[in-house]
Amino acid sequence: MGRQAVKDGMTTKQINKAVHDYIVKSGAKPSCLGYEGFPAAACVSVNDEVIHGIPGKRIVHNGDIVCIDLCATYKGFVGDCAGTYPVGEVSEEAKRLIEVTRQSFFEGLKFAKPGYRVFDIGGAVQDYVESHGFSVLRDYVGHGIGRGMHEAPEVPNYRPERHLFHQNPRLVKGMTICIEPMVCAGDYHVEVKRDGWTVVTADHSLGAHYENTILITDGEPEILTMAEDL
Ligand code: MF3
Ligand code: CO
């Protein structure tokens, strides 16, 4: 629904309304709304905004890229997913950023199974992203999920330093986690805007985000929030 709402002339608020209404109509709860004071169902982030954009009066135009990140709670459990979509025709760099970000999720997913540890996922994401000349955010990470939106463990999109290795649990059947690469076309340093939420790249290069909630099984992981045709 969010993806269909990403069209030239739409405000980020209208994009939010489309997903908000769909979540409510489906009998679920928009769990970002009110979370630590966040004022909307979805984070809508445009161009150099990587994550946590607050929907508002901003109009999106042809050539922009728009990330939609949202959570829904259904029967007590939370699902969390995000994607970045082009408005009309976008630059070659923007197209490549969107595709590399999306694919980096699937590169990480290859390690989301018993026999590996949480940091193996981020290592694969980082290698893939950097091999394409882009960078991964360090200041924000993926996470476990369940009855709460953010649960242990942290799921970084990079290989943490050695002193953090005690926070690197084995992956076991039944864990549900969010793998969510946050990627910058330039340098990975970010700043938070004066609204207290919106995370922008410090060098104002483009940012992209892609996320699904997944279940660790005995074999291949199951993607629980896949919002697109494969
Ligand atoms: N969906 C985001 C995540 O990936 C969280 C958004 S912050 C909120 O963890 F305040 F909007 F909920
Ligand atoms: Co998340």
Q: What tags apply to this protein structure?
A:
four-stranded antiparallel sheet, binds cobalt (II) ion, binds 2-amino-4-trifluoromethylsulfanyl-butyric acid, 230 residues, 15 strands, globular, five-stranded antiparallel sheet
Termini separation: 16 Å
Mean pLDDT over the full residue set: 96
Q: Note the total helix count.
A: 4
Largest sheet composition: 5 strands, antiparallel
- The parts where pLDDT drops under 50 for at least 5 residues are none
Strands in their spatial order, largest beta sheet? 8-7-9-14-15
Q: In what range is the share of β-strand residues? A: 25-35%
Please state the structural category. alpha+beta
Global Rg: 17 Å
Shape: globular
Present as ligands are: 2-amino-4-trifluoromethylsulfanyl-butyric acid, cobalt (II) ion
- Extended strand count: 15
The SSE order reads: HHEEEEEHHEEEEEEEEEE
In helices, the fraction of residues equals 10-25%
How would you characterize this protein structure?
- The chain is of the alpha+beta class.
- Helix content is 22%, strand content 27%.
- It has a five-stranded antiparallel β-sheet with strand order 8-7-9-14-15. Strands 1, 2, 4 and 5 form a four-stranded antiparallel β-sheet that branches.
- Strand 11 and strand 12 form a beta hairpin.
- Helix 3 (92-109) runs antiparallel to helix 4.
- The chain starts with a helix and ends in a 7-residue tail after the last strand.
- The model has no long low-confidence stretch (mean pLDDT 96).
- Bound molecules: 2-amino-4-trifluoromethylsulfanyl-butyric acid and cobalt (II) ion (CO).
- 2-amino-4-trifluoromethylsulfanyl-butyric acid is lined by residues 32, 35-36, 38, 43, 52, 69, 71, 80, 180, 211.
